[in-house]
Amino acid sequence: MKDASPQTIYLKDYTPFGWTAEEVHLTFVLAPSATRVRSRIRFAPNPDAPKQAFFLHGEQLKPISFAIDGTPVTPEITDTGLTCAVPEGGFTWEAEVEIAPVENFALEGLYMSNGMYCTQCEAEGFRKITFYPDRPDVMSVFTVRVEGAEKVKLSNGNPQDSGEGWAEWHDPWPKPAYLFALVAGDLVNHPGSFTTMSGRDVELNLWVRPGDEGKCAFGMEALKKSMKWDEEVYGREYDLDIFNIVAVDDFNMGAMENKGLNIFNSSAVLASPETATDANFERIEAIIAHEYFHNWTGNRITCRDWFQLCLKEGLTVFRDAQFTSDMRGEEVKRISDVIDLRGRQFPEDQGPLSHPVRPESFQEINNFYTATVYEKGAEVIGMLKRLVGDEGYAKALDLYFERHDGDAATIEDWLKVFEEATGRDLTQFKRWYSQAGTPHVAVSEAFADGTYTLTLKQHTPPTPGQPEKLPQVIPVAVGLLSPNGDEVVPTTVLELTEAEQSFTFEGLSAKPVPSILRGFSAPVVLERESTKEERAFLLAHDTDSFNRWEANRDLARECLVSMITEGAEPDTAWLDGLEAVIRDSALDPAYRALMLGTPTQSELAQVLHQRGVTPDPDAIWTATEVLKKTRAERWSNLLPHLAEEAKVTEPYQPDAEQSGKRALGSAVLALTSRLDGGEAAKAQFASADNMTLQLSALACLVQAGAGEEALAKFRAQWNGDRLVMDKWFGLQVAASGPSETADRAKALTEDPDFDMKNPNRFRAVMGALAMNHAGFHRIDGAGYRLLADWLIKLDEKNPQTTARMCSAFQTWKRYDETRRGLMQAELERIAAKPGLSRDVTEMVTRLLS
Length: 849
Ligand code: ARG
Ligand code: ZN
Description:
Domain Aminopeptidase N-like N-terminal: 115-179
Structural class: alpha+beta
Number of domains: 5
Mean pLDDT: 98
Number of strands: 31
EC number: 3.4.11.2
CATH topology of the largest domain: Zincin-like fold
Helix content: 40-55%
Radius of gyration: 27 Å
Low-confidence stretches: none
Largest sheet: 8 strands, mixed
Cofactor: Zn(2+)
Bound molecules: arginine, zinc ion
Family: Belongs to the peptidase M1 family.
Protein name: Aminopeptidase N
Number of helices: 26
Shape: globular
């Protein structure tokens, strides 16, 4: 959809739709290039809405016929919808339109993937299916008839009736159009069942293309666990007789929570030990849970408008994180989430794309399915829970479900249930939803006469459109350790509400060592002058496993920063302290694997930038390499022992215990490969009976510059498997050295199996390019140019995926003049493309502002 002058939509302009939609009947007569969609909708005047013209959204629809109460009418149709004169009271609207799913490469609305019909309607895709009030606050009961020769024809709700060449579905739960779904194709199912807490039997199905049957079992089990967990932890029961999940190869995002008919990117549901890694399994379990949990937080209670997106996404991410913690262990999940937050959300919050968790304006809502709305949105809920306590949270959630079931709700509704359930005033807390940017919290301390004082100062740097920030409510979890390592003050939550505030602890016999922001109790940047000795002390003694990990991360960061900025040698005192932790076999292998991780190169660039140093990607890469080599050499005797400890002798299971061991093993292999030129990796590659081991070995080989033979073998082995081949494409770019990254990526785009229309394949190559920090930022601009070339090409087909990938440039302003100039030129080249989509126009405009 080309749009010369995109419109900006504002939260403050919200007005309800003038009618309610009481019933919706849809009939689809499927054909790849000429699907007919007939709609019959009963509208009644909405007493709560101001008078307005009757407007229905509609885009790229070929109009066939329209009628009101059976009489043909001729609406006025534009690029974005139609207006029509309508009777005063209620009326029945009928329309017939034609659409061409086979030509739909935007993957929004009704489209085709490998010959199968499927839909994606969130956020505003339903308007590409038929004319409709395509807004989340218009909820209706849908009955859907699908006509076509396909063996399987699915829609939302319960199956109602079917016959030769047709099937009818009825969804009794009123829903907005963004939750509509239809699937038709020659699919096969992996069946299952679940008995709910009140004893109702629910039929479960995972629908896949023939050939993928062997990749369903894990997803089905994850679904059952999710259903059980939501009953046990939130008291939420499933509400239809059937729950269908469909795997689709061409999909813009991870998955979609359509009522009773979740549609998944096949990468987010299909898995077998041979083809999927431990990380894939964990992600699949989390996404299945996420989409299932949306049935209550999203579907039964939906959003009034798209500005409220975090109402369902932040909450559902928070819930799926709780689920993963319960399934796999809290400390590892928390650390992984914080790594992810710092890797994806912090750069967003600290650059030109920064926006509040609840944005106040947008041009294209698809551009706001961001780490800020999702992950920071979940952090905000975590803080809320910390502030009101577990019991207060449980009471508030019960009230939320009771009061708002069936509603299209707002953040105000959400906060009100907390205020009522707990008696707490959340006026100031609400700033977490309206103020963009990452708060910085500076810490200073004093000790006299047994009294220890912590002074906390908060400051949020300006963000686009928000030059001044007000103080936020920041829960800072603190514990105090005595110099001998005993915990003298257990974890206490300090509530920082002012710009500067002091907190005292009395009756201490010696100056304690503070452990601050335990469990990462708020999404902030902590600024604290602290000695290496103190950090080493926390690394050895902190009882909070998150902060123990964090102490190590701080030491790693400081070590690398001194290497980069002062040419210092690696800090051996730190390496010895870390070695003690790594050797401690009482600690979970997964935790030790996380301890072995180092800050990413882009995180280092961010830290340098925050300290006023222009990051040099080559220097960052070199320091990271030197550190790895140093560790490998220093620990050469330890590595074989760790490798032994990391061995799994039982048959493969993607559970936390085995995955933790393999994670440790792969960290060890990466170090070993620095010493043996890839010998151990070669052996592991040859003997691997699961994808986790095979892929980690391949990465080490490519990294060591010895991967060609293994890459060829891998391709020959997995040629027929699209998901595994995505790994083949991505890994070569991810693991290549900085001088060759862009050339490798370019060569891969010329491979006959590169298909830009498949978002997974496109992202495998281009995403890996953007993530290879030093490779992407090669000083001659080859990385920038290649990405921009492909973004320009893809925009004609798939604006949504193109727009998301523009964020690869979001940190452009922090680099040196040469790189900055090169990136700016590429952004301007994209912006100048005639007919650029609204999605990408908005992104590059924000990036360049
Ligand atoms: N609601 C989906 C989820 O997070 C994401 C769908 C986003 N789709 C989009 N076109 N922006 O579970
Ligand atoms: Zn979601």
